[in-house]
């Protein structure tokens, strides 16, 4: 086999999986479980999250924890910039990883912006603002863990030392509704699955694997 053919086959094996859900939906746990499952099968995974730990992402974290105050429209713009850097930066940009054949699993991608930021501004504006990211790299599949806001708040209260800007029940109810609106709006453009996030951790993991495994088996 020629080297060029080897590279081509490797590149074809790279998948991009985005996990979405309201705060407290258990995304981080399920990403780790899925990553472990894939690694057990010999599939190398790179896990990441948004906002990132880049300079832009660090600024967002400071805003989300209340150390810096700014307008929600500014926050929406910062997420757009952080996402593009997440895709394209020279150190660990995920576009290059996927193109090289690595399976990338991210905790949040552009559907998070659609859901969280369209509460304060037009969803059409948010979608358009994220159009470049969507054009650069669309998920192989988006996994939405649909969790009841009461259950999510219980988890947040139990597990968080400090609650972030959007971690309020009233806000989570709105965000969930916006997620559902965005998925319905883009159902003909995006490949996504909805997982019942009110089940046990193991049941959720099994439901996710039953949907995702077809991309790897």
Q: What this model shows, in words?
A:
- The protein has 217 residues and is an alpha/beta fold.
- It has 11 helices and 5 strands.
- The protein has helices spanning 3-12, 27-40, 55-64, 72-88, 94-99, 110-117, 123-129, 131-136, 149-159, 169-185, 201-212, and strands at 16-20, 45-49, 103-107, 141-146, 192-196.
- Strands 2-3-1-4-5 form a 5-stranded parallel sheet.
- It is globular, with a radius of gyration of 17 Å.
Task: Give a short overview.
This protein is α/β, with parallel strands linked by helices and 217 residues long. The protein contains eleven helices and five strands; from the N terminus they run H-E-H-E-H-H-H-E-H-H-H-E-H-H-E-H. The protein starts with a helix and ends in a 5-residue tail after the last helix.
Poorly predicted runs are 1-11
- Main sheet attributes: strand count, strand direction, barrel closure: 5 strands, parallel
Q: Tell me the Rg in angstroms.
A: 17 Å
Overall 3D form: globular
Q: What topology, given as strand order, has the largest sheet?
A: 2-3-1-4-5
**Estimated structural class:** alpha/beta
What percent of the residues sit in helical stretches (DSSP H or I)? 40-55%
Number of helices: 11
Oligomer status: single chain
Mean pLDDT: 91
Number of strands: 5
Gap between N and C termini: 23 Å
Give the ordered list of helices and strands: HEHEHHHEHHHEHHEH
β-strand amount? 5-15%
């Amino acid at each position: 086999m020629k080297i060029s053919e080897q590279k081509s086959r490797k590149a074809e094996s790279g998948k991009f999986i985005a996990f979405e859900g309201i705060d407290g939906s258990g995304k981080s746990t399920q990403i780790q479980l899925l990553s472990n499952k894939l690694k057990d099968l010999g599939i190398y995974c790179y896990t990441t999250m948004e906002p990132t730990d880049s300079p832009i992402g660090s600024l967002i974290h400071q805003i989300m924890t209340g150390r810096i105050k700014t307008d929600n429209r500014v926050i929406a713009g910062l997420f757009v910039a952080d996402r593009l850097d997440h895709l394209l930066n020279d150190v660990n940009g995920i576009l290059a990883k996927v193109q090289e054949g690595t399976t990338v699993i991210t905790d949040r991608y552009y559907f998070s912006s659609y859901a969280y930021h369209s509460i304060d501004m037009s969803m059409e504006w948010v979608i358009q603002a994220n159009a470049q990211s969507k054009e650069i790299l669309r998920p192989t599949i988006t996994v939405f863990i649909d969790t009841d806001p009461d259950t999510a708040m219980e988890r947040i209260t139990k597990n968080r030392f400090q609650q972030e800007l959007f971690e309020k029940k009233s806000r989570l109810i709105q965000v969930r509704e916006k997620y559902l609106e965005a998925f319905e709006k883009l159902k003909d453009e995006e490949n996504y699955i909805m997982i019942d996030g009110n089940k046990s951790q193991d049941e959720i993991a099994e439901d996710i694997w039953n949907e995702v495994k077809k991309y790897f088996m």
